[in-house]
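User: For my dataset I need records formatted as: sequence, then structure tokens, nothing else. Please produce one.
Assistant:
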Amino acid sequence: MSQVLPAVRAAYVQALQQLVRDAPFPRLMGMRLDAIDIDHARIVLDIDERHFQPFGIVHGGVLATLIDTATFWAAFLRLPEDAGLVNIDLKLNYLQPATGGRLSAEGRCIRPGRTLSYTEAHVYDEKGELLAHGTSTLMTLPGRGLELGIGKFENA
């Protein structure tokens, strides 16, 4: 997929961020789509008591969720307007525990494809320490795009 894509409309990005903010699971987790562009996404989450496991550190599922979400959105904007995505695998490594503050997951699409895309994400604490790294393969779902009432691309 080395095609040149038109610019993504700013209004589309804002509507997408609002959609994610209002969706039940991101709201439950307290995470938000902070930034998104072609082949990149940043997810942020402010840790609070709901994120801790009994040993006083952030539950590994929180870090896995951040990686899953950042990899998904990193691949999303490149897709045709009428297509969606589904994650078909997720691999990750926990590198050090998270203990509080703000976490940020930086997702990047390494290999976009028409059917399968390969992505990665890094999770950092607010000091910039790397906490976890993961990769994901995502499958394109034709006909399953998001209806936001705004075209995704300029001049489209």
